[in-house]
Structures are given as C-alpha cells and as structure tokens.
Amino acid sequence: MKIRLHPTIILEKLINSLVFILLIAYSFTLEIIENAEESSEVIKSLIGALNSNLLLFMLLFSLIILIIFVIIFTISWKNTYLYFENGNLIIERGKLFKKITTINLKDIATVNIRRNILEQILNTANLKIDLHTATSETYKGKLIFKYDKALDIRDEILNNSKQNKQNENFKSDYDYKASDVIKHLLLSIDLVSLVVILAVYSVVIVTLCFKTKSLISLILSIILIIVLLMPLIWSLAKTYLSYYNFKCHRTKDHIKLSYGALTSYKFDLPINKITALIIHQSLQARLFKYYMLEVVNAGMGGDEKEEKTIISLYVNEKTKNKLLNSLVPEYKNRLTLKLGLENSLKHYICAKLFWMICGILLSPFTYGITLSLIPITIVIAYLQYKTQKISYNKNLVIISNGILNKKTVLVKYNNIELISKKQKIFSKIYDTYSLSFQIVGPNNVIFTSGLFSQKIINAILKQYK
Amino acid sequence: MYKALDKKGITVMRINAIITGLITLVILGIGIYFIYPLLKETFHFVIFYIIVGIIIILVFLDIFLFPRLRYNRYSYLIDKDRIEVKKGLFFITTSIILIKRIQKVELSTGPIDRLFNLSNVTIYTAAGNVLIKFLNTDEALKTIDKINALLKQKLGKKKQDEN
To answer: Is the pLDDT of residue A51 over 60?
Structure first.
C-alpha cells in the first residue's frame, strides 16, 4: 500500500521558503520600478493603478510567487509516496524529475521522530531514517506524517509492531525535574569561555559608564549591554528548552530517549548499534562530582549536531552508577582506572617546552611573552597528566583525558575498527606512547588516549583480536 | 615478520619532494619579491630571514634525508588475522586492522608510481583506512589476493560458527 505524506508538508515548506519568497518579491519589485519607463504598457498601467505604492506592489508579487510555490509543493506532495516491497522501503518523489529511493530494511539502523512547534500544533511528526552504512548516512528528504501514522510506520520499519506504540509514553529510568535541567545547564557551561565573555563585557560596561554623562546615553549603554548579553541568555534558554522533559528508558534491546520543548526529539537506539559510552565532566562537574552520559550510535547521521545521544543529564555519582546499571549494563565499569606514569608528566612538559623554544627561535622578539607562558604551560601539562587514565580487560578498554573538562570513553574491542599506537618525539626517551582507535559513529569517531608506557599499550593491542 | 617497501619508493618520494619543493620555492620567491621591500630596515627583517632559511632547509631535508628515514620506518605485516602498518617520520604510527573488519581493498597508482612500476594498497574498514604505499605492482596484487583469501577464510569460519 502506498502511503502519502501529510498535506501539512506544503505549509511547512511554504513557511521555510517565506524569507526566500519575500526576498525575490522585493528585488523583483525594485527592478520593475527602476525600469518602469522601459516596461510594457500593462506593467506601466499596473504601477499607475497601485499609485507607485511599493509595499502593495511587493505584496502582490509575493502573492503571485506564493501561489506558484503552492502549486509546485502540491504537485510534489501529490507525487510523493512511501511503501514497502520485498523487504525494502521505497520512497518515490516527483513527477517530472522522478526519484525513487530504495532502502533495504536491514540497512536501517534507527528511525527517530522529530517534532518542531508547528508539527506539535498540527499533531504531525517528521520521520528521520538513519542508515547503518560505513558513513552513517541519514535519509535527507522530509517525511511528514500524522503523529500516529508516523509511529505505525516507524514500528513497521523496525519490525517491532505494536510493542513500541504501547510504550510510546514510557516512564524514564530517572525522573528529571526542572531543577535537574537547570543544574545540567549550569554544569554544562564552559567556564573558561564564560570568564572571557564576562571580561570583555566588563570592559565594555566600565568604559561606557565612565564615558556616559547624560541620562539618554546611559540608557542607550544599558540597552547595548543587554543586546550584547542576548546571545549568552539565548544560548542558556535554548539549552534549557532542548533538554526540557528529558526522559530515557531501557527496554530489552533498545534505549528510548525523548527530550525537548520547542523541538521534541524521540530516539529509539538499538543496543547492538551502540559503539561507545562517553562520560562527560565539565570543570564544575568535576568539582561537585557530577557526570553526564552519552552514547555513540553507529546508525546516527552526523548532519545535525543538536541531536546528541545523551542518555543522562548531569547527575551525581550515586545516580550515575544506578543509570549505568539500568541503561547500559553492558558497559558497567568494574575496572580501576590507572593514573598516567610519572614519565608522561615529564613528556608533556618537555614537549610543550620544545614547541615554545621553537617559537622563540622563530620569533626572537616575542620571547618575553613566550617565557611568561611557561608557568601556564606547566600547569596545563600537569592537569593533562592528572586527567589521563587508562584501563582495560579482555572485552573493554577505557580511556579518560582532558585538561579542565574530563571525558571518559568506554569502548568494547569488538566495536573498534582500527587501532593505532602512536610514538611521538619524546616517546623513546620517556617510554610514553599513546593509543588511538576509530569506531563507527556519526562522521566516524576517533578517540586518542594520553601517554602511557609501551608495556600497557602493547597489552591493550594484544587484547584486540 | 614485517616486510619493507620497494626500494624504488625512496626515488619516488624524492621526485615528489622535488616537485613540492619547487612549488614551495616559487611561492617563496614571489613572497620575497613583494615582502622584502616592506620589511627592509625593520626589525622583522631578521625573523623573515629565519623563516626563509628554515623553509629552504626543510625543502632540502625533504629531498635528501627524509625519504630514506621514511623508508626505514615504513613496514607492514600481514598475519592470518591482522594487518599491521608502521609508518611516520618524527611521529611513528603503528596501525592495526583485523582481517574480519576489512570492507574493501583498493589498488591505486599515480603517474610517477607507474614509471617505477609501483602501486599503493588501501585497506578500508567501516570507520577508517590504512595505506600501504610504494609496493611493487606484482607484490601489491599478491598482497590483495592474500588479503582476499584471508577474508574469505574468515567469513567461511564465521558462517560455520553461525550454523
């Protein structure tokens, strides 16, 4: 049976093209009015009738273009179908330039549901099909259906029939309250960037306050400060809204994920497609012992950065352990992470000083600045050394690194596609090597460890079979 | 046992380095022509001399010394269940691919490589690839056959295990 998309796709496409339509109408109107004298009698009379009213003229043109777009989008909608045939999902598009996309159902990694505000009002949803290929592609076209229909199609594709639909309003494994989202927001802030931004703003505010004498210019300065702060406030508000109503639940072989207020995301992640687990900690999260969990999914397309597969917002250690047990017991880490060797600290310091000396040799006049950076460099090297850890057993390898923020990656050997041992300039002197491995994920993911002795690195390489 | 590359690889690396070096020196010459009058009699003039000197030294090292070092460090091993490729100049990388992870093997050859009967073999996995450069074309074809045979063997074994 051929399934046609929901007609609201025409409306969505029109809204998306509105700016474009207005731009065309505006430039077209300007051109006609500028060349009015050379125009035909019909246009001349039209201009006369409208009494050279630019706005009216522009609206008229917008309407004409809008009607043309409506016709094009309606033809496109009438000729777009989706159907199943011989184990394939077939998507037919267009009449004049017909395009038939055949996707083998076995190649589909996940089917997710995404809803923006308009779709939530119209009770429709956009199906996002991620393919399990080497490059983790995503089907690019928009597939808008009535919400229930979208769930049915998703179930049919995933061959899960009614079970998914019944569990659609699932209960989260951990109940995230609004305060948890705010906590997550505060712990996710990049403190270094914040300090830099606030320093710049402080300079602007102080300069304006000292230079401002009249009341009007003082008000204008305050408005300017608010305008300058807007991107920061917007970014915080956007993060809050994107993780609003965060829910995550583990079924037998899937992780169900749903979050977002303005645009809601619903993911159904098959467990066998998860290639790595990442535990994030920002600087403030490290201080207060909070953790955020993310999974790398082999089927997710990497085209939309916002769609991160975070399976837990920032939570405390006890909740993190509980969530690791319930959401990804396969990755439960029972290994103690070893600290980097003493020699790696020397390696980090020497390598950084070596590049500094190269810089001084290349630009002898900046040696003052370069030399003043030496204490900071040593602190960075020490932080890097303190954060780097590695651990392994016969199934799993765990690495953690970072400077202020910390990232711990857990990967199973059978998910590693390519593993490399890296020897750097000072590696032979200090017996410190690093390890990097590539796994399937959005845009293919590479993780690199800190510096460890050859004995540890070789032992991990031996386990890779 | 790790295998070394074809010795003709050094010559190909040198020819490539000469071409790249010539392009670099031409760009450098154009740069000097325009920047020299501007920096003359300023203290940046010394930095300018240092940078130009370093670039010229690097071009010469890339032609005369680095190909030999790269050749000595470049080696590969094809075992019954893994392929290891060691390469680099100052940063040496040893990459390991399991035979069962291989998705595609590709043979490629450039115009200079063809003059010396050399080819490159690229081994692809789902998330990355490894390149074995400067193999004698016959050796490269044999390597591909060997990898394909090992892959078939692995797949056969996997099917047997599944049954």
So the answer is: no
Distance from CA of B117 to the nearest CA of A (A): 29
Cα–Cα distance measured from residue A267 to residue A249, given in angstroms and rounded to the nearest whole number: 11
Best interface-test mutation with B: which of A296, A360, A417 has the largest number of B CBs within 10 A?
A: A417
State whether B95 and A422 contact (CB < 8 Å).
no
**Which sequence spans correspond to the domains of chain A?**
3-78, 81-166, 169-332, 338-463
The partner residues of A291 in beta bridges, in order of sequence, read A315
Residue type, A84: F
Collapsed DSSP state (helix, strand, coil) of residue A53: coil
Nearest to residue A123, comparing CAs of A83, A151, A161, A88? A151
Give the number of other CB atoms < 10 A from CB of residue A180. 17
Q: Choose the closest CB to B125 out of A361, A417, A446.
A: A417
**Domain A81-166 class?**
mainly beta
**Bridge partners, A278 (sequence order):** A294, A409
Question: Does A269 have pLDDT greater than 60?
Answer: yes
- DSSP letter at B101 equals G
Closest CA to A348 of A372, A390, A399, A382: A382
> Using 50, 70 and 90 to split pLDDT, how confident is the model at A166?
very low
Q: How many CB atoms lie within 10 A of CB A48?
A: 10
Residue B8 forms contact with A (CB below 8 Å): no
Write the CA distances from A328 to A259, A320, A333, B10, B103, integer angstroms: 19, 11, 10, 51, 28
The answer on pLDDT for A101 being more than 60 is: yes
Alpha-carbon gap, residue B126 to A448, rounded angstroms: 18
Tell how far CA A386 is from the center of its chain: 28
Residue of chain A nearest B55, judged by CA positions = A362
Task: Please name the member of B46, B81, B94 whose beta carbon is closest to the beta carbon of A421.
Answer: B94
Q: Which of B46, B54, B96 sits opposite A419 (nearest CB)?
A: B96
Yes or no: domain A338-463 corresponds to CATH 3.40.50: no
The model's pLDDT over A390-407, given as tens digits with 9 standing for 90+, comes to: 988 888 899 999 999 999
